């Protein structure tokens, strides 16, 4: 989504031609899968970390242009809001000390950047939803300068033909607002985990990722506040599902799918997901690239399929299929998007260890649980976990379980076996899964620490806005120590 796209590149009014090109892209992908183009597979992983900019008092700093200029890093780029940036870690083989190396790199970037941007009055903070954001900072005037973002806002507004509505009434405190743009998406920052998979194994890994989305969110929740109201433990989930819904009323009544969702079924292969993408969602960025996918294949060259990839970037599946070409060779990845950013490098790598280990264990099991579980139960698990965090009950193998018990007794041992199967260093396996276990045992996710701290501050005389600022200031200081969130002191 970070690519620059200008309105002049769009071919609005050529809908039939764009649709035919997208269908040809899907057909070309099918030919590549059938023809064995995805050779030389390696088990690699990657991470994208979205970050917020705050001042020393915990309030947003809308200066990402200046920060990125000061840092001059090729691995960091703009995100939607002027207070957002994104860090991209290079892909690594999923083996050995990959977890340790990932934590080291994230921690080093955060420490190095902190020193270099202090003179701008800014700090980087990894948090699923910045608690101190106000409505004035979530408007179209506050989005980043990349023309793609302004264009996205206009195109989504045109598709919907009415204001975007957010209506969260089943959390601790209700949150309701209408907006003329999708700019409030900038409130949500994520940890995105990539896993490269081969076409013949794509379906089982994708289904495993869909199955565990609820458990991931429950143990990692870090987004309890939106516009100064305490909503869900992981409010990002419901915010994005509602805010990025471009359907008109008649489309909702007809059962048309939303652009942000977990899905509607277990899948049988990667191509069907891209076929759904083309059949079910009108492109927000209709383009016609100079490269003809059939001609590229005929010439023995992996096509870029740019139209399909651009379209894929405007449908926000919680687990997104990704087609890419690296060094002239095509590859398929699963982009896991359910996790919030933060609180620290060790917390995020612990969440990654839980994910990578658990999907591998499920794929290797003789009887994958998703085969005996209706897909609707996986979607229900995700929303229960996002709302209730570690207090949620999740459906697993036919029974609802308290998520803390399920995690300790079933999921963490499975994740350990999965990391062993990948060949991950045993010391790192124990260290990072131990962080998740301690977090669950202490019942202290990032969301729990935030709400406990704000409650204390309010009980000692601070009003909500002041309490959120003080909590965010303390959050940034604790995060700088590098200690995992379950070790942070609660007042």
Structure write-up:
With 491 residues, the protein is an alpha+beta fold. Helix content is 46%, strand content 16%. The chain has helices spanning 15-34, 64-71, 98-117, 147-160, 199-211, 213-220, 235-243, 249-253, 270-280, 293-298, 306-312, 345-364, 375-388, 403-422, 426-442, 446-459, 464-481, and strands at 44-54, 76-78, 84-93, 123-125, 164-168, 175-179, 190-197, 225-226, 229-230, 260-261, 316-317, 319-326, 329-340, 393-396, 399-402. Strands 1, 2, 3, 4, 7, 12 and 13 form a 7-stranded antiparallel sheet that branches. Strands 5-6 form a two-stranded antiparallel ribbon. Strand 2 (76-78) and strand 3 (84-93) form a beta hairpin. Helix 3 (98-117) packs antiparallel against helix 12. The longest helix has 20 residues, at 15-34. The protein starts with 14 loop residues before the first helix and ends in a 10-residue tail after the last helix.
Beta strands, count: 15
Residue stretches low in confidence (pLDDT < 50, at least 5 long) are: none
- Assembly type of the shown chains? single chain
> Helix coverage percent of residues?
40-55%
Radius of gyration: 22 Å
- Note the beta-strand portion: 15-25%
Structural class: alpha+beta
